[in-house]
């Protein structure tokens, strides 16, 4: 079926969708009806400017109150956690399709046992044996947060009470790692005052999106739209 709005054919751009194209045409026609746009204008920038003026005029977006922001803050605590941080080092014994895996593992196990007896040799052995570029820096990985590494490595880094050279190899898709956790800094909840504006903007964006959908729905309910369902609703949901 051909996509059209009030008898006007609508073209869908490659980066758009039928719903978005039809909604834009509804808004364009509404802007023309209100005298915000000349019907003969086909300049995209001019059309977009007229649609923005239309939305400013007819779609009201309330500002979130401090109480609403604070309620969101309390109901979504994990969003405002600064996150755990860890300072770590490692020595990587890389596993590739060409290597003898049992031999590489045995070599890693021997090195780990040596380091558990002589932890001060970590930097020396990292420079000598590690297949990671960090080996040139004594295996130092610097500061890491959750999500910075592959999951299996992250689990070892952030396991409860992990510190010093871990007593077992860590196996990842890259190979076998000897891991030393030098410092773990638990995350803290960011104070409400520091994220108040961020929350207010997030809530405003949500309300704005919902109000725009409702506004387009009202326009669709008053129009003849073919080729797409814009959830037409003839009642004035947005005043």
TrEMBL record:
Family annotation (InterPro entries): PPIase_dom_sf (IPR046357), PPIase_PpiC (IPR000297), PPIase_PpiC_CS (IPR023058), PrsA_foldase (IPR050245)
Look up the EC number in the record and give it: 5.2.1.8
Q: Name one Pfam family in it.
A: Rotamase
Q: Which UniProt keywords apply?
A: Isomerase, Rotamase
Q: Which residues form the PpiC domain?
A: 83-183
A Gene Ontology molecular function term of the record? peptidyl-prolyl cis-trans isomerase activity
Q: Broadest EC class?
A: isomerase
Membership in a protein family: Belongs to the PpiC/parvulin rotamase family.
Q: What protein does this entry describe?
A: Parvulin-like PPIase
